[in-house]
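job 3f2a | input accepted
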Amino acid sequence: MRQVGMREAEGAMGSAAAGVVHRLAERRQTVATVESLTGGLLAATIVEIAGASAAYRGGLVVYATELKEWLAGVPAQLLAERGPVDPDVAAALAEGGRRGCGADWALATTGVAGPESQDGKPVGLVYVAVAGPDGTEVRELDLDGGRDHIRAGAVTGALRLLAEHIQVPDAAEAPRS
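job 3f2a | predicted structure (177 res):
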């Protein structure tokens, strides 16, 4: 039963990644990733798609809290006051990744994959963020299951968040009457 569930989760991740990669390539835009709880799974899911090099700039895995500050530019005071699992931290991760990687868009993940809670935050609490030309959006996810399912859900959630932003036609792409 567990194996079937993971295949479904992997299928959802791959499908979301394919849509994002192809849409970004059409738009001639790029994306970067900054990951905590997903530990590189988001980046790996994106580069699994043929043609990813047209859209994917690169990313950071900032699993340790201090690396969120040192590499992604998250303010030390924010981390000290709220800890790494926080919506404003997710936003700062995405914004730092966008700047640092020189991408049009950046995705970030932070949360608690388990098996135990972290700093009073429950297992399954995840924040995904997208930073782009028009600002930053953060989404809270409340995910169930083991570590693998939570990490896969975070990847899919981040990719779907980006997909929502890039599916809106630009003025140049809008049909003319």
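job 3f2a | The first helix runs from residue 2 to 27.
job 3f2a | closed
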